Amino acid sequence: MNNQLPSHSDQQTKQLLFWGMLLFFFGLIQGGLIQSVANPRMALAAHLTAVQTGMALMIFGLLWRYVRLSAGQLKVALLTGIASMYLIWIALTYASLVGAGGATPIAGAGFQANAFQETVFEVVIALGSVFGLVSGLLLVLGLGRTAFSAERPVA
Known about the structure:
The protein is an all-alpha fold. The chain has one domain. About 70% of the residues lie in helices and about 0% in strands. It is built from 4 helices and no strands. The longest helix has about 35 residues, at about 115-145. The radius of gyration is 18 Å and the shape is elongated. Residues about 1-5 have low confidence and may be disordered.
């Protein structure tokens, strides 16, 4: 196995750090607006999601140099990872604004939006979840190749 990283890896690291920090920042702002929405419990969930997943994207960026995947797999992991975190946050934020809650029994308890709004919420959160599973699987495989390889990691 080649010890050299693909040439786009540094750029992808920077992208993960940027998109993670931006999502973290959005979460900080959202924390101050929790009480001003239709469902404050859902807004709290969205705030915590943004802060935590923003940090997760930044951690992905810091780990990126240890991920051993093909250039195509790296691109898929990058795009699905970023999309997942943002879609889930957007879905929760949307639900907090319109009062949707069917897909989240704890944060959505006692809240029900119209059928269209509930469907939008459910589709977006499901899509984000699927993207998260794809990205997570690729990252585990790529890190596993490094962790169980006899090669020295790139410094």
